[in-house]
Amino acid sequence: MTDTPTTLVTATGDSAGKTAITVALARLAADQDSSVGYMKPKGTRLQSNVGKTLDQDPMLAREVLGLDAEMHQMEPVVYSPTFVEGAIRGTEDSEALRNRIREEYDDIAADHDQVFVEGGGSWTTGGVVDLTDVDVAELLNANVVLVAEYGSPNDLDDVLAAADAFGDRLAGVVFNKVSDDAFESLDQDGIPFLESKGVTVFGALPYEKELAGVTVGELADELGAELLTDASTDAFVERFLVGAMGGDEALRYFRRARDAAVITGGDRADVQTAALD
Would you tell me the crossing angle of helices 247-255 and 269-276 to the nearest 10 degrees? Predict the structure, then answer.
């Protein structure tokens, strides 16, 4: 094991902004003339459920940071549904997985001044093979930055649970995508409360709609698509829904979604009608 300074960025939940914050921290270090490495031990954002698929986050980090590490080094474990099913049935060896992560980490760390490690999913992901982010932080001797979202004081339960699990390895918390409505509560009550519990808060980043999705016009341009109406194309698309179900079920599903685009077949008039409704 090397003694290269290592930072693990983890989160209280999925899609909290770990990748952006991990890459941003690495870029800041690189701008200060540090040679930086990156890895995501558990690949969770996969392109398919089976096989040696690649997580999208390491690919983005390699491009943005100009890294030349191989993908198998940056993503030692493909944490796919197939992998999890195998782990539950006893076909995965936890110690072998730990050794694989440690070996790839050592190869990356040997060539860099600092290493930035991105957690997979939430900080509890990996428990079926004893590789939660708590375990990874211990394995790689990493300091931890916790990314959390905040909508109400109830969200502090998750932050405190994570802080207790990471213990002294937790360097601090970054709140991300905080809405205007929730910011005052977090600033006036939430942050002082956490700090009274000994939890350092690095800051809070506001929710920015422009960073949360793309406009209809941008999506059409990227796809080279034909627009069938003359409606405004400034509306934001923040999530994509696949319309593969029946029309009635689709309608119930679509009613729970906002600012979404529906992807469905040209012959699925029932799904198209449900989406328009």
Answer: 30
- 240-266 confidence digits (pLDDT tens): 877 766 767 777 777 777 778 888 887
End residue of a domain, out of 165, 185, 207: 207
User: Do residues 195 and 70 share a domain?
Assistant: yes
**Neighbouring residues of 149: CB distance < 8 A, sequence distance ≥ 6:** 12, 13, 16, 155, 175, 176, 177, 178
What range does the domain containing 236 cover? 212-276
The amino acid at 251:
L
pLDDT in tens, 75-110: 899 888 888 999 999 999 999 999 999 999 999 999
Write the DSSP assignment of 3-50 as a string of letters. ---EEEEEESSTTSSHHHHHHHHHHHHHHTT--EEEE-SEE-S-SSSS
Q: Are residues 54 and 178 in the same domain?
A: yes
